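LOG
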Amino acid sequence: MAGVAGLGLGGAGYATFVEPEEISVERLDIHLSRLPEGFDGLKIAQISDLHYGPFTGAREIGAAADHVNALGADLVVVTGDFITSPLLERTSTPASTTLANAGRCARVLSRIRAPLGVFAALGNHDVTTNPGYISEVLQAVGIRVLRNGRAPLERSGARLWLAGVDDVLDGQPRLDQALAGVPRREPLVLMAHEPDFADEASLQNVDLQLSGHSHGGQVRLPLIGAPYLPRLARKYPYGHYLIRQMQLYTNRGIGTIGVPMRFGAPPEVTLFTLRAGRPAGAAH
């Protein structure tokens, strides 16, 4: 009995103090049939769900930024939830502290460098707090926020588009506006915080959707999986998917919410290498 209790305490200690700080770097080759030769080999790094707040701070987010820089990516995307909203968490954290955390998070992320830039979409915690202010502090450190917008990226005479929609749960997402003016023959990567938005995005001119929101469940139990997944992250909770002709990747994120614990779902930095060619079957 004592051994079982000790094992349980040891597992709780690992989930609380060890796994939340053990960043896993996931590497994937993503084949896109419309990718121009000039973008073959392009490297995109993704981080998500930083949740600067009660349980995650400069140390953890700084470690993620350092991992990203070490990968030497051409482009970096951050797919939302820069802070933890006191409204959604039902904590006693005052709004002024939450907004200050947005500035602190932006300053840590300002160390990230990528030749084609650092781009972001907002998450539900961001838009329920103060999306205008959070966008402002991010853009002040050189991180371009795409809220129903798009940006062309040029390389070797070819063009790839990066787009972002406003948060699907609590914002005002306009996919039509985000894709406006993008030629149908040119490839497009979409940032959307909630992964289950892929069912809608896959009906449009999108080649790859990058998402977060789920934390991979944050706690995944053997034989059971995640006891809880948030809305719009239950169908595609983590990893690589193929939906119609569009690919989706759901990143497990860096921070934690609810409880300062991860188990079976370590924090993640993802590195994608884009390749020209037809996509193979995804992992799910």
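LOG (cont.) second protein
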Amino acid sequence: MRSSLAGIFLALAGSIGFACAETPEEFEAKLGYQTGTVHLGDGMATVRLPESFRFLGPEGSRRLLVDAWGNPPEAATGVLGMLVPTAVSPLSDEGWGIIVTYEEDGYVDDADAAKIDYGKLLKQMQKGASSENEERKKKGLEPVTLVGWAEPPSYDAATHKLYWAKDLVFGSNTQHTLNYNIRILGRRGVLVLNAVSGMDLLPTVRGESKSLLAAVEFNEGHRYTDYLPGKDKAAAYGVAGLIAGAAAAKLGLFKLLWVGILAFKKVLLVAVMALIALLQRLFGRKRKDPAAAFSAGPADPTPTDAP
């Protein structure tokens, strides 16, 4: 019995390329959750967390994105933090999170917001995604299909906040991926909040993400209304370009969705970690390095960028 269980563990661990030294509970307990009011970017912005969310700083975010969700290390570059739902573990199949970054491309003029034809913009984005897939293939990445809006763009001119959601498909995967976007315009750039999950979680992500619109604000001196024309840098694009991905397109590839979470990999990850916990109980094995986390390396490349 013991040898057969050990064999199953080795087969599973080998199939996704990682070894684990912690149970899911132990790993999550060390992520460093914060609640209440947190500050981003050396006081640039403030998040007043609703009870439904917890916050992870840059290091906790890196561990979750890279060690737990199996993304490449560069996925955590520039991440200011993550907002994780309180009600579910990010290691569970229902787990998801909102990644917070900052694009310092300058002041985004919102004069075009009321005139945007979102149907036309979607077709342009789909055409761009098709062109980008040629570059993706050269880099050994799966093609990405932009199916459509999962949530049409909506801009609040009074608060200078924007949200929309995209329905994406990676390669031949039958599962659709939801990319929910929130943008908060500031004096020198834009706060970027990206939520990634399976499309089945759209109602949950939609409701929870919108609750954050009022919770995240630039601080005085960094606000949209603090912009000084002629003195502060202005972005080379407006709201339409922000939605289409102008900030990322300048890098040669669209990178607005660099955290591609494949649900089946998360299920495998949690299943193997649970099996390890069982083996530890059966064998009474003591970990030599209790502080070590697990390192994840998915069996096939996880999508790392998208339109």
